[in-house]
Write a structure and sequence with these properties.
With 385 residues, the chain is mainly α. The chain has two domains: 2-211, no CATH class; 220-370, no CATH class. The chain is built from 17 helices and four strands. Helix 3 packs across helix 5 (146-163) and helix 4 runs parallel beside helix 6.
């Protein structure tokens, strides 16, 4: 008899299982661990053995595993024939991943302090290691080696959770993909005729599997990490020349993101030009001067005498900060409340971008609402299992 569990409208929130009689779950200890037993955890940084595994894996191995990985949904006999030599020669890489699985934390933040300029070469390697584990687990399930398959799935979960300890949002999305692979293989085990009872193992899985609040905080300070002088704008007043330098840096970043090439100079964002008659800066100048006078408790006429670049840039940056602060406010709400709250936040951010086309900071507001919309159904997939 089949049981279909539907938690939502998306395909990721639907699971179908064959119902079979199984022995009751063990009550004395955990026979099947889907995450590393806390008693087996050791001090140390999981990123180190994982990076070693990725470096040793190399492009040749990635290509070999990739071909087998792509054959998973085809003929099982053909897949098993392709996977067997892969499974037999992956021991060293699996050992390194297993070592990482027993480490308490993974520190991926070295280099991320460069903000938008940060390089993330490790992400492709982590996904390739996950594909390797997926090939191994699929082969083991086909062979009826369910204990071994559950161990491979455990390593997949641990790999995903370790990658998800990064404060970079895209890293968390990669981690989500890895955990989704583990969910698929676990469902395959549960549908096997000889599947053990995994009640307590599933009950002990954390909810949620990934905590994206750290990534939200990382996105919150991404622009400050990219243009460090912006951190000083919170504690002291920047001059007009300081703001001009900030605008030049943002212009270079924007050109690089569009062309993919490194540039040293750009006038993409030129506030002096925007403040000339007919420019977009002129439309916001009076509002910015009024806000400056209020925040500094000075007469409006005095604010009007100040460098317009300084006044408008400070106003634009304050508007950006308000948007970013609003992004992090609802982060700890449950998904049913978080998703609509972020949808409303996203609409407000889009409205502000429309109202302030000359505000360069708003170009760097992350699309966390879309990211959470991807995370939520996959995270809820555990509940469907």
């Amino acid at each position: 008899m089949a049981l279909t569990v539907v938690l939502g409208a998306g395909p990721e929130e639907t699971r179908t299982f064959e119902l079979r009689a199984a022995p009751p779950p063990a009550t004395a200890g955990m026979t099947h661990q889907l995450l590393t037993d806390p008693r087996d955890m050791r001090r140390g940084d999981a990123a180190v053995p994982l990076m070693r595994a990725a470096l040793l894996f190399g492009n040749v191995r990635q290509e070999e595993v990739g071909k087998v990985y792509d054959a998973r949904d085809g003929d099982p006999k053909r897949f098993d024939a392709m996977a067997r030599p892969i499974v037999e020669t992956m021991g060293n890489y699996v050992t390194l991943v297993a070592d990482a699985a027993c480490r308490e934390h993974a520190d991926w933040d070295a280099g991320s302090e460069r903000g938008i300029n940060a390089l993330l070469p490790e992400l492709n390697g982590m996904r390739e290691l996950a594909n390797m584990l997926d090939v191994i687990a699929t082969y083991q399930i086909h062979q009826g080696q369910l204990e071994e398959a559950l161990n491979s799935i455990r390593l997949q979960y641990e790999l995903g959770r370790k990658v998800g300890q990064s404060r970079v949002l895209v890293s968390n999305l990669v981690a989500l993909g890895i955990i989704s692979l583990a969910n698929d293989r676990l469902a395959d085990v549960m549908n096997h005729a000889d599947a053990p009872n995994l009640y307590w193992s599933l009950a002990r899985l954390p909810r949620p599997m990934l905590r994206i609040d750290r990534a939200f905080e990382g996105e919150r300070r991404m622009l400050i990490d990219t243009v460090p002088i912006l951190a000083e704008a919170r504690s002291r007043e920047l001059s007009g020349d300081h703001w001009r330098d900030v605008y030049k840096q943002l212009s270079v970043l924007d050109d690089q993101s569009k062309s993919g090439k490194s540039t040293k100079q750009s006038n993409r964002f030129d506030l002096d030009e925007q403040l000339r008659p007919g420019g977009v800066g002129q439309a916001i100048l009076a509002t910015a001067q009024e806000r400056y006078a209020q925040s500094h408790n000075i007469p409006a006429g005095e604010a009007a005498e100040l460098d317009a670049v300084k006044v408008v840039a400070a106003y634009y940056y304050e508007q950006y900060q308000n948007v970013i602060d609003g992004m992090t406010r609802p982060i700890n709400l449950p998904y049913p409340q978080l998703i609509p709250a972020l949808d409303a936040w996203g609409k407000d951010a889009q409205r502000l971008m429309h109202e302030q086309p000359g505000n360069p900071f708003l170009h760097y507001v992350p699309s966390v609402n879309r990211a959470v919309a991807r995370v939520a159904p996959r995270d809820r997939n555990i509940a469907a299992i």
